[in-house]
């Protein structure tokens, strides 16, 4: 079994056996003894696997799973997951998350916030990243270059005309503004033209992994507006599906950082059918 296959097997056990059965006692068997978290528990929160076991136990006490779907993307030492998790109590978590593994054990993770219906998972002010959390880049590919151009040229340079080269004619979005919508390139160009007017993006940190037609990115940047000292920061993990080297679909359920204008609410909770084709249904 290759390293990537072992890493994937670890995450399958993480979801099938631990989260799927609400069995937090398995965490020390799956995660490394020291587990570094850049997530809703803190921007740089190093904890033991036993501490995380106990934390998850508090959140899952008395719960059982009603609906659960997930999808994995693996490259090198990293595995990303897209998930939709609904408990019988009605709590729902939607996420895109990145993990780094060593010896097939999880040692680090990135999850600045989750969507869904549970405010516990929404981004919190105490988990703003410093930028050092983002890993060094892996080798680039044609698909990664498309996603990098999306971030650097469209968002970073405000070149909305570039979108016609990077997106399919109709683009499907599952994000913190709308759980599921289709939009044309022309319509999305106008949206971003208005959104980016008078703003510049700086201090961009970008990391990506790729498998098949999927690219998942860990990103942090600052947005500087028209007003003096109006710097805002976004920290997020976003997934993309590509068709013929164009972005056809994206998942971004929550954005962390310090931008209080971002809206996270129950209206954007994902429904069945939003996960990529081939997702595991538990």
Write up this protein.
The chain is of the alpha+beta class and 282 residues long. The protein has 2 domains: 3-118, Nuclear Transport Factor 2, Chain: A, CATH 3.10.450.50; 142-264, Nuclear Transport Factor 2, Chain: A, CATH 3.10.450.50. It is built from 6 helices and 15 strands. The chain has helices spanning 3-19, 27-30, 49-60, 142-156, 163-166, 185-196; strands spanning 31-39, 42-48, 65-75, 78-87, 92-102, 105-111, 115-116, 167-175, 181-184, 200-211, 214-224, 232-243, 246-252, 256-257, 280-281. Strands 1, 2, 3, 4, 5, 6, 7 and 15 form an 8-stranded mixed β-sheet that branches. A hairpin with a 2-residue loop joins β10 (200-211) and β11.
How many structural domains? Answer: 2
Question: For the report, how would you describe the main beta sheet?
Answer: 8 strands, mixed
Q: What portion of residues is helical?
A: 10-25%
Secondary structural class: alpha+beta
Number of helices: 6
Helices and strands, with pairings:
Elements: H1 3-19, H2 27-30, E1 31-39, E2 42-48, H3 49-60, E3 65-75, E4 78-87, E5 92-102, E6 105-111, E7 115-116, H4 142-156, H5 163-166, E8 167-175, E9 181-184, H6 185-196, E10 200-211, E11 214-224, E12 232-243, E13 246-252, E14 256-257, E15 280-281
Parallel strand pairs: 1-6, 8-13
Antiparallel strand pairs: 1-2, 3-4, 3-15, 4-5, 5-6, 5-7, 8-9, 10-11, 11-12, 12-13, 12-14
